[in-house]
Structures are given as C-alpha cells and as structure tokens.
C-alpha cells in the first residue's frame, strides 16, 4: 500500500539555509536574496503550447505567465503549503460570492497599467475571458468559463459574436468592478479567477491567434524578442507599478528563454550552473538520475516534490471484453506496479506508486487500495486469473494499448504493462499516436477507440488547481466525453459518479465537499475504469546561481516569480 | 554478268540529331547519302574510305541493323529495304556480318559454343548431329580447336576471337558476308592469318564478300572490285586493277599516294599528292561535289553541280567533273545537261 | 546557354510540381484510403471542444470535401498568388509564396521555413567545406601513396566512417565532447552568423565535424577511386612527359579530372542536406529545416510536411541545376545548347 | 658515345600473375639528326621502352635495369627530379591518341604554354606568343585563334599537330613518337609524316618513331629495330631490314603484309600462332614456337637464348640459324614468294 | 548452353594457342567463366572474404535468432526488473553484463540486450534485403528498358529517376511511415510495418541502381555482340535476357551488395526516428533511440550501435571486394 507522506525535509530549518539540502526548497527558501539585476536563463526541451493567456494549459506556463500577466487572483509565491493559498492580484480581494455562490464579484486595484501605459479596466478582463471562449482560435485552453458561466445561447466568443450582450455571464458595472454569473452554484470560484484567462487583454491590441507572438504585458516583464520555436526574452515593463503588486519581487532584469533545447543538455547545464531553470519543471532526464542520486553532494542541490499529477491507464469499458468488470479487474490485478513505477522514471523521477486517483497533496485524498496487485506490488497473477475466469476469458484476451509516440516514458509504461499483463494471457499490442492528435483523433475519440479496440490508453492528468474539482472533474465526469474527440476522460462512464460530482460542486462546506471527492475516487476505482500508475514526482535541480529558490506546491515546481540571480 | 546477289540503289541514311524531352529533330547526319552498287555472286567488293565516310553505316544498312531513310536494297532480287524484322528473319541466314572489334563482338559471358551456336538457336535450326557437333565442325573449319567449345572469349587472343566471330557468321551457310574492318584491330602477323582464312573460306564455301576497310593495301589484296567512299557518297567504283593502277578520281589518287610504301628505296623518288585538312563533318557536308574543299583540281562547277557516278571505262565508274586517267574525254559538262 | 538554362528551369518547375503532386496525393489520399473522413481530418483543427456541427463546418471551410484536384489546385495557386485561409475567427492571409498554412501552429509555413533556413544552410555549408577539404585531400593523398600505411589507415577509417549512422556518431560525440569533456555545446543552440560569427561557429562545431566526418569518409573513397582512374589517363602521362612537377601533375591535371564526378555527387548531397539534415538536426536538436520536418511529421501537420518536402525538393533540383551549369564551366566538352 | 645509348635496358613489372618482362635487355644507339624506327607487334614492349627513356616509370611499379645514356648522362640511376627537368626540354614525346593525351579541360594553347614555361622563365604573354608560333609551324591555320580552342574542338589531325607543337615547344634534342599516326586516316597520316620529317630537319633532333606499320618506318627511318617479346631481334639500316632481313620474324612481318604497290593474288605468308606472354616467355628463342625454321637450328631454339650478333656493317640479328642458312632461306624461299605477282 | 556464371562441365585437356597470361606450360586450364575468375580474385582478397563471412554469420544469426537467444535462456521482450536500480533506473552494477546477459541489460526494464541485438538483426536484414531486392528489380527493369529502347522511353524513365532523386527521401519516408494507419492493405502489426518499410526504402532507392543499369545497358547496346545477335534475327527479349542480362549481373550484384548497407542504415534511421517497426519488437535503431535517454549507460548505446556498424561495415567490405573481383579495372 502506498503511503501518503509528502516528502518534506525532515525537521532541519531552512532559515537562511543558503547551502540547501535535498528537498530543501520544498518548505523553505533556498539562497534567499533581495538583490536585483541579472538575467535569468531558462530553457525548455519542448515549446510552450501557447504564450497567450487565453490559450495556455501547461502548469509551467501558468507558473511563468505571472511574470508578464496579472490575473484577478493568484497563488501565493511562497514555499510549502502556503503556495496553495490564493491571494488577490489584479483584484483588491478574493471574490465575493452572492446568490448561493452563483454570482462572484471582484474589485480591481487602481493604477494597474498595460505595458503601453493604458490603464487596465474590468472590460479588459471581461474581454480576455470572452475571447478565450473561442476554442477554434484557442484550441489548447481549458473550458471552465465556457462550461460554467451563464453565457447567452448561441454565444460563440468575442470574435464570432462580437455584438452579443454577455452581461448574463460577465458584468462590468464600472471600470473597476467585474461580476461573474454562473449557471450553477460553485463554491470555490476563486480558483477560476486565478486562471490565466482572467489576465486582461486590450481589445484594440488583440490579434487573435497571433496575440501569442506579443502578449501585452501587465506584469513586471514584457516581451522583447519572440522567435517562435526558438525562444524569447522578457525585459522589465516600466509601466508595472510595484505599489499595486505586493506579490512580485521582480528581481532579475530580464529573462532569457530558449525553447526546443536538448533535454539532457538542459540537465547538464543546470547542474553545471550555466543555466538557471528547466522551465517545464518536470524534472531531470533519466540519464541525470545516475549522476544525481548516488552523489550526496549533488543530490543536496535537488528537490523532489510530489506534484498533483497522476499517471494512469484508462481501461475503456466500451471495448469488449473490458466491458466486463471482471476483465477490468484482471487488468488491475495483473499490472506490475513496480515495473510501471520504474517505467515512469522510478521513485524520484517517476513518482510514488498510486493506488487511487487523488494525489496525496490534494484535499480529499485518502489511502485505500481497491485492487491490491500482490504484496510486492508486482501484480497478483492468481487473482487476475480468477477474474479472467469470472469474466469468461480464462486464457486471456487480446487488446491494444495506445500511448503518445513522443513520450518515451509512456512507451516504457505501455511496454511494462504489455509485459505484466502478458503473464495472465492478456496480449497487448502497442499503438503509438502523435501526441497532438492523441485525444482529438485517437484515444480521446470514443468512436475511434472503440472501432480500433483501444482497450487501454496511457494517460496522465495534472490538477488544474489543488482541489478535488480541479483534479477529478475533467477525468471522471462522463459528461465531458465528446463523441467528436478531444476528451480527457476516455473511460469513466458512471452516472453515479456524475451525480456525486454535481453534489460536490454545490457543497459549500469544504470538509463534506472533500468527503464527496473521496467517495468519487473510491467509486471509480470500484468500477476499475482506471488503473492508477504513479503520482508523479519530479527531481528538480536548483541552479547554483539562482537565488530565492523554492517549490510552489500549487505548481509542483520552482516558483518563477520569486527567483533571482546571484 | 549474272544477276547481282546484292543490289543497292540510292541508299540513304540520315541520322536525326534530336534534342529535348520530346526528341525533336534539329538536324541530320548524312552518314550515307545515296549510294548505288551491285555485288555479284562469288566476288569480293571492297569498300574503302576515310573514317566517318559511312562505310559501317552502309554495312549495317544492308544487314538491316538500321533502317534506311531512302533508296533500295535488293537481295537476290527481293526488295528488303523496308522488310519487317519478322520477314527478314529467314533471310538473315543468307546475309551475315563480321565485326571489326574482336573484343566487343563476342559476348564475354557466353562460351564459344554458345556464341557459335547462337545462330542455330535464334533461327531455330536443328542439325543432324546436334548443335554441338555442328559448332565443333565450324570451329575446325576456321582453324580453332573444336575442344574450345566450353571456353570463354577472354581466354583467346585477338586473332582467335576474330576466328570465333567468323565461325559464328558461317554457322548458317550464308551467301553474302559483310565484313566490317575484319582485320584492322589485329596485328600484321595475325591480320594475314585472318585474310588468308577469309580467302580460303570464300573458295571453299562459295561465299560472296562485301569487305569494308580503310586499309587500301588489304583491300587491294582481297577485293575483286573496289568502291571508294567519301562523305557518304561513292566517288569511284572499279575493278581492282584499274582502280589501283589508273585511278580516275582525284580523291582516290590522293588516297593511294598517301599510303606509305614499305620500301625505303623508293621513298625519295615517289611523287605524292598531299591533301589539305580533314574530312568535313557529315552533319554539314559541302554542297555539290563534296570533295571540292580539298581538291586541287576543283573549279567553280564543282561547288555548284554534283558530279554523277558515271561509267567512263568498262567497269569503272567515277563521280568527278575532271577525272584523271580517263580514256577518251567525255565532256564533263555534257552530263549535266 | 541561356535557352539551356531556361529549359532547365522549366523542367525544374515541372519536377517540383510532380514532387508536390505526389506528396500531396500521398498525404491526402493515404489517410482517406485508411478510412479517414473529411470530418476526421478537420477535427484536428478545431480545438478540443468543438461540436460535431463545428467540425463539419470546418471541414467544409477548409475544403476537405472538395476533390483532390481542387484541393491541389488551391495549394498550387497559393504558391504563386498567396492564399486566404478562413479558419473561423477571421481570414488568415498567407502571402505568396504560400506553401500552406498550418492550422495547428496557426502560422503560414513559408515564413517558418525561412526562419529555419539559416540554421540548415549554416550546418550544411559549414560541414560541406570541411568534408570537401578533408575528404578530397585524404583521397588524393591516399591515391598517390597507394598501398602505403597512410593509404590503408585512411581508407580503413573512411570505410568505418561510411559504415556508421550519423545518429550513432552524433550521440557518441555528444556524450564524449559535450556531456563529457564539455568542450562543445550539446546542440540545440544556434546563433545567427551576423549576431556573432564566433559563437555561430562554436555552436555548430560538433554537428559540422560529425556530419563532415561521415561525408568526408565517402568523399575520400570517391576521390581516391577517381584519382586512381585519372592518374592512369593518357593526359597525365603527357603532363609528366612535359616535365611538370609531380604536384602540378596531381593537382592541376589529375585532380581537375577526378573532381567532375565528385561535383555531381556533391551537388546531390548538398541539395539533400540543404533540404534538411534530418538526422543531424534531430540528434543535435538544431532548429533547422530537418528538425522542422520531423516536428511537423510528429504532429502530423500536413501543410508543414508539404511545405518542407517541397522546399527540400527545391534544393535538390536547384543543386542539380547548378551542378550541371558548373559542369559546363569545368568541362569544356559539355555544351549546353 | 652516341647521343642516346641504351645498354641492356630492362623494364620489369611485378604483377599478381607474375613478373612481366616488358623490356628485357634492349640496347641501341642513336645520333642527333637520325631517325630510329622501332617496329613490333602489340605488346612487344615498344611503349614501355619509350616511357623508360623518358623516366616515366620512376615512382611506379616498374623495376628498371641497365643504362640509358643521353648526351653523356646516365638516366636510369639519376634522380627522378633530375630526369624530370630533362623531360620536355631535352627529350619529348608524342603519343598515339592525341585526344586522350591532351587534358580535355585546358585549351590547347595553355597546354603548350605550360610545357614552355616549365623550362623557360618567361611571362605568360611571351609563352603564348611562342605557342602561337609553334602552332603555326606545325601547320595549324589561324594559330592565333585556335590557340584558345579546346582539344575536342580540333580534328584528329590538328590535335596530333598540336601534340607535336607541344612536344617541340622547348626544342628537345630527342623526340620519341609512339605510334603518332595510328589513330589517323591515311591522308592525314601522310600530312603528319611529312611534317615530322620537315621538323626533324629543322630541329636536327634525334627521332625515335615507334609503330607497327612497316610502311611508316620505311618512309621515315634511317635505322630500324625490330622488337619481339621485349627483346631486339633484328637491328639495321632501313635497307638492311627491307632488302636483306635475316630474322625469320622479320620475314614473317614482311610476308604478312599485303602491298599496295604490288598486285598480289597469292596468299599472304602469315606467322603462325600469336605473340608470347611476357610473363612466361617461351624458353630458348622467344620466337621458336612460331618459327617455321625452328627445325633447322638443331634443337637449340627451345633451349638456348640466342645472342644478338652482328652479321655485317651494324646489322644485328638474334637467331640460332647459321648466317648462311638465313641468307639462303631469304634469297631462295622468302624473297621470291614476296615478289611473286 | 549459355553459362553466364555457371561452372562449365567439361574438363578435357587441351593445349590452346591461347595467350592467357602464364598458361604457357600449365597443362589444362578449363574454360573459366568470368564468374570463376572473379571468385578466384575474391578468394585472394582476405578482407573482403572476412566481410563476407561476417555477412553470412549475421544472416545465420538473423535466421536462428530464437535459437541463439534461447540458448542463453533470454527472451528479447522479457523484463528483468530485479536487475534494475529502481531509483536511477540503470542496471545494478552499471551494465548487468554477466553470463546470463552477455551484453548486459537495458535500463528501466532490464531486457536482455544480447537477445534484442540478435533479434534486431532479423528486422534489419529482412528489411534491408527485401528492400534491396525490390529496388534492384525495379531499377533493373526500368534501367534496362530505358537503356535498351532509348528515345522517348529513355527520356521518360530518366526524368522519372530525376524526380525520385529530387525527393527528400528521408523526410518523405518518415512522413509516409507515419501517415499509414495501423492496419492497411489487409496487413497489420509487424507484418504491415515491415512491408511498409520495405516498400518505402525499396521504392525510393531504385533510381540509384536504375541509373547504373541504364548506363551499363547503353554501353552494352553499343557493343557489337548485340548487333551480332540482331543480325542473326534475335528479337528484343532474347537480346535483353540472353545477351545483356548476363553482362549486367556483375553490376547488379555489386550495387545490390553495396545498397544493402545503405538500406540497413536507412531502416535504422527510420526506427531511430520512431517510425519503424513497433515496440517491443527489437530493432537496432529503436534501441539506439531508447539509449539516447541513457547515454550514461554506454553499453546500451554501444551494442546496437556496433551491431549496425559491423553489419554495414561487413557488407561494405564484401561489396568493395566483390566490385574489385568482378570489375578489376575499378581497382
Ligand atoms: N547512330 C548514329 N547516330 C548518329 N550519327 C551516326 C550514327 N552512326 C554513325 N553516325 C555518323 O555517321 C557517319 C558515318 O559513320 P560510319 O560509322 O558509317 O563511318 P565509317 O566509315 O564506318 O567510319 P570508321 O572508319 O571510323 O569506322 C559518322 O559521322 C558518324 O558519326
Ligand atoms: N604498368 C604495367 N604493368 C604491368 N604490365 C605492363 C605495364 N605496362 C605495360 N605492361 C606490359 O608490358 C608489355 C609491353 O607493353 P607495351 O605497351 O610496351 O607494348 P607495345 O609494344 O607498345 O604495344 P602496342 O603496339 O599495343 O602499343 C605488355 O604485355 C603490357 O601488358
Ligand atoms: Mg566503321
Ligand atoms: Mg604502345
């Protein structure tokens, strides 16, 4: 059974702990400093999905976007659990609910300006949300506002319905006030208000899909050069007024970001101090593990936070014989979870063996293990065989497992499953698909998955924010499944689960609410629609040159707002 | 004279010069430009001329390896000028060709047996004691060891290879053999062996030869009659004796006097005619008499009117406005009327 | 000459059209043969939340319902005249030459390619300089010292060189020189030449050397073979008979003759490399055309794949054209008419 | 000592199949202003000899032996560099196939200029002037224009003229022409032979002309050397060789040749068999397997290598047949049959 | 009767007047075909012979992969997680090399590298051989056709070769391999992938052979023995198959041998880029792609890399030797 302990540095106070030790930045600031100046050098082995606040959906991007964009509310820039707390940013305070939490009102601070000097008004915030509605222009983004605000019927977003009256969804009674109207009560809308979509966008400067090439800054930094595919630089935004902004220290003079850099090289350079941060915050490459873990001195310069990400395998009940619970159970039992853990990167770089959905750091997490894969976590062949017999497939069956071709870890995990399920006669064929189309065309398209017998699909989900809703809703609610493809929930179809989700959303009492999320977690596991693999962990390397380094729990990686350069 | 075995009339071959993807014709090489002659059964007709004058092309036209662009070829009275390859097939037994290069004319991947036996196979002929026996007989005939049947060409010397080539032409007992420079690639000593062989075979098998060569001595040695070509035309055609002893065309004259004589005594007193320059390109031959650019006797008429090939003495035809050694002088102008 | 160039240019355009038609057909037909509908194809462009209705509209707008020829026609027209892409929120202008518009990145392909081009050109040309110098020099020395220790060592290394895939040598060199000795960058970085020539060269050093090693090995072998052949030519003997110094004989007479066939291969190699040094760029994560191609293929971005294929083909065609023209300069016997 | 003297020259090539004795003990002498003709069948070692004199085997696989004296200098033992400086200046060569013997990528002029400038320290302009002069002297029309043509733009005859111009550009004292006319038509061959004769008179060089055409040597040569299997088998004045040949091989050559000046209806008298392999030269007299008169040597032919002996007045023959026998065979058997017509 | 490369049957004694070097007193040389002569030359070329032996060895390895891997009790897809350090993912003790695992084990899953390399030979050689065969067949057919018929046929085929050579073949191959779905043309799984790779590689390499064959055919057509056959009344097919093809066998053989290593690299490149045969089927290129992430475990990079290197080298050595033997003037 997986223990839930969040790795923390055991006891040792980090006050003034300039040297740092393993996991030192999880709970304290390493290398604290107030020195301004210098350029922080970041690198990304891949590329941003988009720099546009209306379109970006990567955790690291939300972490990073705070440098140039200010949303209504934000996560505190602080180490440890504090990072999970919301604090007003553009708004003067957290949201004020009314109408049974169906209406939320925010007051904007005065004196906030765009990089060109024009003052930010509530209209700009409203426009930012409205434009993000258009998922044809912004295919990458989340759909929370689309789904929950009370939009007029047939509303198509700022571009296609420019003249629509959207007051039913968002009202701006004056330039400093913005009011959100929801279709249903939502007890913690403040999490919505921290989404990058609430970063104001000046309508006059909006260039639609091209806005990402030059986002108009409200934060302390603005774009200087931006070469898509190669990198960009941020410089100080002289229109940013620190007086309006207690959250940001804005230490460096600028940021130099390179994209599409060799991942191993990033590790080496960060370890060598030539580079300050691997911006994706997903941890080092496997090759670096062997250099870091065995060497205590090197290991001391790293942190190993548990994120809010679950790597899992969807078990598609639409694909026979997996429509039979017993057959799904066989998969759960037969899976060798230690092999999966290794495949995902091992204890440090991969994660902690997961027994349920909700990661330990998310309220509502409870320790339970519905289908124990043997005492050693290497799979329980006997029970799996029993389940197979009960399912009417005593000799096993054949099905396919999909994964994203570009992701070696998913491939390794799929191979590990293929290997361990093979022991009980479940023969898996590996089906790699390009990641861009993985959900839109293949694994996330129910028709395709069914026709092509994608019984299993490698999958991963990171909480959009640290609560049960933010984690579970998008992956277990059967109503988010779209026949046209693109759904992140590809397997869980249980009306009872849907009902429970509705209850949880309305529940204003946090404790009862978290109880319901636990219940949902258990129910899904009982259905055996999901085979949890690991709760992801990342081995992060602190740069020698970076100051003020700490892990922000909300993002599960270093906080880019706080960091400075020596 | 009996009916000629082979009769060629106004034979022409213009090779198109093409360009581009669509192979458009932009010009023509007039390799053979209207030649006429007969070959009588049992005789040897020699065809001489400098490089590029169209000798080989003539030979290939007669064997129908290439399609004539004009004129007529008659073999034993049959018009074979444009006869289809299918109908030619049986006739091919009667006309055979000996090639110049003993190295490229034998397929290096075939044994001697296969090479000499190929005519039987291609023509589908069964022989009494099997092909092998027939081939070995022929090998013997040309002076090769019949036991060489299973050898490959590269194991033989040039002279032996040429014998193999000759053996192949003899397989089908042809009536006419066209020999294109049969000895020019061989050393003198070997050359003589092959020349003798050709002569022996002629008398033994009653063959008729059309021998193409540029070596006037060889031609003098083996031919009964000789035709001299210049730039796709026959300029003079006569029996051996009169051609060598009293050539009429200035070109023939020049050609003969250019040949070095292996006799150091005579070299001082011999008078020579030296031609200037080289043979012009057949792509663009001089108008009218083609020789006028190099002829020391040329006059205005030579540049405007083409002299026809006329019989000036018995069996002596020449195409020249101002022939030498002509017996009685028929006015050249008269013929142009 | 001018007409030759014009003809070649026309043919180049024809060739590129054929390449584009084949590419187009394959990328648009194969998915359909595999059962994809136009909606399936449109689904990738409309975001994650589109309704079936929206997908249908998008498919229509993007012209996926039109016959292949119409779609190709649009594509071809775009190259000449530019194109407008109506992807919903607005019409996106893709100015000529429009090699397609990526609906995934929301960017026209051409500027992207232009952006990547300097990297690939730097990589290819830099490596080419090294490999030509190293390869040819080694080949010449080997040929001259044929059978010597140097020859055998160089040829063994060269054979080993051509026998190693670039991604293997690339990885090994990365591990050794970048990760290990840290004397070179690990790729991924590219500094434009104009920004800082020194950094530019330093960044590309390892890829250059690795790529050049592979090719130099091949060129050394080619040059050696070519030199051995030309050094047997009669004109080399003539040059020696004139009393030329051996070095002059080798370089001025021998090498000059041996280089022509290498020029052809060089043209083809360089053309192919300029069109994307796929393996090198992906091994060293250089943001060039080849990496772009891989990325485009990875996300199945058909317009980008089309664009990059065409640009790559363009380089080969142009390189061939240049080589042919150069040929006429190098070898006076080649006449371009 | 003569201007050029070869003493027991040997050129051997070690090959995979064995040692090729291309030239095996060749000696002769030649004076300025004289012409030596070397005749022999293909592969008898004619070209190898000429390349040996020019020192072009140096640095190659060939093993050289013996001595070559040119104007009092020994060349076989001399350094390659020294021999190089003599090439082109002191001795020059004309090759058989002028098209392949000239570099296709350089103009005719530049190839002559190059040859001239190696040995004469003059400006390009002067050298060019000289090249035009030389082209004019060998009879190329409009030499000032043709100097910039490429070899392929010349006809065969002009190319050979240009080759000659190139060879003569530095006034060499020894000129070797290796089959200078074999690739040419008779009419052009006659022009070239005339030209060479005239030029030799002007330059007073020693000329070696290599050919397998007895007619050509008869036209040009003062002395003739007949080679067989890498050895000299008969040497004498042109008259000696044509009027009083003493070696059966020479008889064979004469008998094999159809003559233009005589109408002969009888069969030619060829030599039987074919030339020997130079790796496995027949024991004894190399010619004995093909010799009609082998039986008259008393069995020595296949066991003993005959010596080159002088019969009279510088006429040398390498034959086991007694001198009288040779004489009588020639007078009674060979000569009549050659002249029968 | 025509024996292009076979052994002639008769062995009677004869003393030819022939001139073959060195035969003067050697008693009987039988008719030796050029093939036999080439073989004699090849036998003397020790390096090429060694290459040939390695090639044969590799082929045997490929054929008997299951037996060889089985002899060590290893399955190429079997995980050996217990041999892996679960934190660093690399084999315990660095490589895992030992009596059981000759080449050590892979990081992460502990699969036996030896058996994977051995099985990798199958895919590699199968694809390389069949793709070469395909391109040789297409190339020879079109090359001979173009060269023999000339004129407009030649123009069209030559231009087609130009077009093919202008294709950025690697980009195109990757794209094509990526675009073809999982089951098509009635094939699925490895069979489909292997066939697809064979097709792509074979289909894009034929112009190289095609050009060579065309050139050779053009020069053969000028040889007089072709005219000789025609003057005997032989038809096109006879000339192509009986007269020309035997002479083309040498270049075909040479270039096929030299094309195989190119195709081995081609296949490895495609697998390296992830569009080859699907995992877990082992391929050398695929292993290298995995090894890239674990460059700190050099043996993982080394063995598949060396497998490619040795295979390609062996073919190249053998091909070079073959060329020298069959076409000695190229030496
Ligand atoms: N297939 C062809 N296409 C174009 N031109 C040709 C062709 N064959 C021959 N010619 C040209 O026709 C002319 C006559 O050629 P032919 O081979 O008949 O001359 P020839 O008298 O046999 O010369 P040689 O003595 O050199 O063999 C030459 O100028 C040659 O270039
Ligand atoms: N570099 C070499 N290596 C080996 N053998 C050689 C070499 N050069 C010449 N030979 C051999 O030496 C012999 C004499 O050759 P050479 O070229 O002197 O003959 P040739 O008398 O000039 O004949 P041709 O009349 O054909 O020119 C030939 O058998 C030839 O094969
Ligand atoms: Mg001819
Ligand atoms: Mg010679």
TrEMBL record, chain B:
Q: Which residues form the ABC transporter domain?
A: 6-256
Q: Which organism is it from?
A: Planotetraspora silvatica
User: What biological processes does GO assign it?
Assistant: peptide transport; transmembrane transport
Lineage, highest ranks first: Bacteria, Bacillati, Actinomycetota, Actinomycetes, Streptosporangiales
What is the protein name stated in its UniProt record? Answer: ABC transporter domain-containing protein
Name the PANTHER family for this protein.
D,D-DIPEPTIDE TRANSPORT ATP-BINDING PROTEIN DDPF-RELATED, TRANSPORT ATP-BINDING PROTEIN
Which family does the record claim for this protein?
Answer: Belongs to the ABC transporter superfamily.
Gene3D superfamilies, per this entry? Answer: P-loop containing nucleotide triphosphate hydrolases
**Coiled-coil intervals:** none
Q: Which PROSITE patterns match?
A: ABC_TRANSPORTER_1, ABC_TRANSPORTER_2
Q: Name one GO molecular function term.
A: ATP hydrolysis activity
TrEMBL record, chain C:
> Matching CDD domains, A to Z?
TM_PBP2
The membrane-topology field of this record reads: Multi-pass membrane protein
Keyword annotations from UniProtKB, A to Z: Cell membrane, Membrane, Transmembrane, Transmembrane helix, Transport
Report TM segments. Answer: 9-30, 119-144, 156-180, 200-222, 257-279, 308-330
Pfam families hit by this protein:
BPD_transp_1 (PF00528), BPD_transp_1_N (PF19300)
Q: Which GO terms describe its biological process?
A: transmembrane transport
Give me the Gene Ontology terms describing cellular component.
plasma membrane
Q: Where in the cell is it found?
A: Cell membrane
The family database entries (SUPFAM superfamilies) matched by this protein are listed as: MetI-like
- All copies of the ABC transmembrane type-1 domain together span 117-327
The UniProt entry's sequence similarity note says: Belongs to the binding-protein-dependent transport system permease family.
Q: Any idea what this protein is called?
A: ABC transporter permease
Taxonomic classification: Bacteria, Bacillati, Actinomycetota, Actinomycetes, Streptosporangiales
UniProtKB/TrEMBL annotation, chain D:
Location relative to the cell: Cell membrane
Look up keyword Metal-binding and say if it applies.
no
Stretches assigned to the ABC transporter domain:
4-254
Q: What CDD domains does its record include?
A: ABC_NikE_OppD_transporters (cd03257)
GO annotation, biological process: peptide transport
SMART domains according to UniProt: AAA
Q: What UniProt keywords are attached to this protein's entry? A: ATP-binding, Cell membrane, Membrane, Nucleotide-binding, Transport
Record's keyword annotation contains Transport: yes
Q: Which family does it belong to?
A: Belongs to the ABC transporter superfamily.
The entry's protein name is: Dipeptide/oligopeptide/nickel ABC transporter ATP-binding protein
UniProtKB/TrEMBL annotation, chain E:
Q: Which Pfam families match?
A: BPD_transp_1, OppC_N
**Segments forming domain ABC transmembrane type-1:** 121-319
Q: Organism's domain of life?
A: Bacteria
Q: Name one GO cellular component term.
A: plasma membrane
- Compartment(s): Cell membrane
Membrane is among the record's keywords: yes
Instruction: Identify the keywords attached in UniProt to this record, alphabetized.
Output: Cell membrane, Membrane, Transmembrane, Transmembrane helix, Transport
* Chain ranges passing through the membrane: 47-72, 123-149, 161-180, 192-213, 252-277, 297-319
In terms of PROSITE patterns, this protein maps to: ABC_TM1
Entry membrane topology: Multi-pass membrane protein
UniProt GO BP: transmembrane transport
Family under the similarity heading: Belongs to the binding-protein-dependent transport system permease family.
Q: What is this protein called?
A: Peptide ABC transporter permease
